[in-house]
Design goal:
The chain has 104 residues and is an alpha/beta fold. A hairpin with a 2-residue loop joins strand 4 (74-79) and strand 5. It is 36% helix and 27% strand.
Length: 104
């Protein structure tokens, strides 16, 4: 499964999933482009148990401000609508996978 495009309007419905990861990105962010394969890989590996989404902060600005997304790339893990883990800057498949397995 590929990550879902999440917007300011769809954010609350997306995080209501029992377990999800939301990656914040922008077309101008070169580090974000490097992280996209990590998110896609994890979305395939955890298909059915974890939902993955991507939010473009260039077109959706409200949620990133509310969540204090100050740098890119940033990925948040939500469990039952609450942020439980935050990755800021480049992160590895291993870092993300370890955190997801700890929370499952």
């Amino acid at each position: 499964m590929t990550p879902i495009e999440v917007t300011d309007e769809t954010f609350s419905g997306f995080v209501k999933n029992s377990f999800c990861v939301l990656s914040f990105t922008s077309p101008w962010c070169s580090a974000c482009k490097k992280m996209h394969p990590v998110v896609e890989s994890m979305a395939q590996e955890f298909d059915g148990s974890v939902s993955f989404g991507i939010m473009d902060i260039s077109t959706s600005t409200q949620v990133p401000v509310e969540l204090r997304i100050l740098s890119l790339p940033t990925a948040l893990i939500f469990v039952n609508g609450r942020e439980t883990k935050r990755f800021t800057g480049a992160y590895s498949v291993g870092d993300l996978k370890t955190s997801l397995l700890e929370l499952l």
